[in-house]
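Handout, page 2. Input:
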Amino acid sequence: MKFRKKTIRDIDVAGKIVLVRVDYNVPMKNGEIVEDMRISASLPTLNYLLGQGCRKLVLISHLGRPKGEVNNEYSLAPVAQRLAKLLINKDVRFCSETTGDVVREAVADTPDGGVLMLENLRFSPDEEANSEEFADAIIAATGAEVFVQDGFAVIHRAHASTDAIARNLPAVAGFLVEDEVSKLEEATTDPEHPVLVMIGGSKVEDKQPLIDKFLPIADMIAVGGKIAADGYTNDNPKVYVSEDFALDENGAKLDIGARSIAHMDEMIRKARTIIWNGVMGMTEDQRFAYGSTMVATAMGHNSGLTIVGGGDTAGFVEGMLRSPNNSSLKFSLVSTGGGASLELLCGKKLPGLEVLLDA
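Output:
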């Protein structure tokens, strides 16, 4: 399926300052990055732009929820340091502001071919307010001539860095956004059958729209996780709800059981398109991560289109993939955006995608 928006392949960036919205909202603990999947996922776009001779790259992102106030706990400085290690042989710098003369000077001091990361966008309430003035101030301070949207995880939000900036500069998609949107749209509009949708997690109100969306499309829908443990029912013959569970010492249902795992494994083996959103148990406790582990392992050996969405689910799979024991597991897409992937799969329009130039 052809991607319906212009990408970085469609524009000339040579000699230009390029503003890139990345999503570096990575998990942190005691000021240290716990997992850098989202940083690594941006590297193909950044390397391509630098390889095309852009004058300078200016990166913008948010981290956490600082609620519109400066809070060093949410500074992107450690992220810039990690990026400098991952972006081999590139000059990566950090600026402690997002607008104003400090940014102008930082851009001027960044050498041609270099990368400058600005401070957390959400230190200003104007970011989430989608302020035109804030967007204009970022553009003016950076001297940006082109805008690249590569933060898939935030394109379901109409914020200054996803909407207002894109309406004031030539705006195209980076490779990450192109890849995620293309695979998710393929799964909803032209999937290879049989199609299996696997639903877990805890909030049925979040997942029911996904079930409703895929009932006409999917051949099989499997429901596990806390949703199933809490008694979810569905009379449609396409829908299988976990029938047994692993219990803790108090009798709480904290993972799917052996019969459910076996049934889901059989469904995964038959499927050619698989979408998984929501873990099957309380995966933070290793005793109740077995169901999710078995689902991920079976999916990772399926040669069809395999998509993992949802923050907890993607994080769980990424954790598995970091182990050498799981090097044989392959997935078509482990999405960087939980909310964005869920909304796209449910057929909703994403503001940060719609605002980009049409192909």
